[in-house]
Amino acid sequence: MDVRTPTRLEVIPLTKHIGAEVRGVDLRDTLDAGTIRDIHRVWLDHLVLVFRGQRFSQEDLVRVTGYFGEIGPLSRPLKYFPKGYARLLPNIMLISNIRENGETIGALPDGEMHFHHDMIHAELPHKGTLLYAVEIPSYGGDTLFASGYAAYETLDPALRQRLEGRKALNHYNYGTTIRGDTKSAVEAFGEAVHPVFRTHDETGRKAIYVDRLMTMKIVDMAQEESDELLSAVFDHSERADFVYRHVWRVGDLLVWDNRCSAHARDDFPSDQRRLLWRTTVKGTVRPY
Length: 288
Description:
Blueprint: E1 10-13, E2 20-23, H1 33-46, E3 48-51, H2 58-65, E4 93-96, E5 99-100, E6 103-104, E7 113-116, E8 128-135, E9 143-147, H3 148-153, H4 157-163, E10 167-173, E11 189-195, E12 197-199, E13 206-208, E14 215-218, H5 223-237, E15 243-246, E16 253-257, E17 261-265, E18 275-281
Parallel strand pairs: 2-3
Antiparallel strand pairs: 1-2, 3-16, 4-18, 5-6, 7-17, 8-16, 8-18, 9-15, 9-17, 10-11, 10-14, 12-13
């Protein structure tokens, strides 16, 4: 398509701490450099962007991912993904509970999913994620986003002092959605050590960078003490006033910043189809 002429974006904040809906742009168009810069700036300010009513092809999703940086590789070796991936362009992940011949066509098919940061288990985590809704059940399957900035800035000073400068081990058995669940895992896993509090490489703000699903232990700390401190941080980070809940519609595109936000998923009816396409934006710096 032709390059779109400069657009005045309409930005509607969705909560006090996180989330904004962006209107006035059709992402099927090839955007001019100024509009791309404006969208990126709004992303840094609001952590999660919502674009309603998009009508995407896979090629559109790959192109729009490029507005935020280099597209990231899949989160696990291709052999561990269902057969449905043969239908996708490289680096697009299929999130779906649809089954054909008794086998799921996509990853993370069923149930709720605990709060997590995408790719926190990698040495170089991906900095952003895009998720596009193709089929959505009649209810459930909401995605919740929590601001790591707000959680850090309001954390009890005594707790913050005990964790400042500490690092944590993050481990993920691919396919699991709930902490400690192994029945949904595959053979592969990833793990990496990162700071408990991360300084954002573009904004300079600090955010909590541990999560309930993937953070296993604070390094060089007894497990019992680590469990106690992490549990307190998780509970604080997931407070309702730090969270935006997204109720999906077909055609929604969401873009979120994994450096300063965590996300989770509600349960949804297992007999209703859910299908989304996911890409990630490759990180450019390690968290420390």
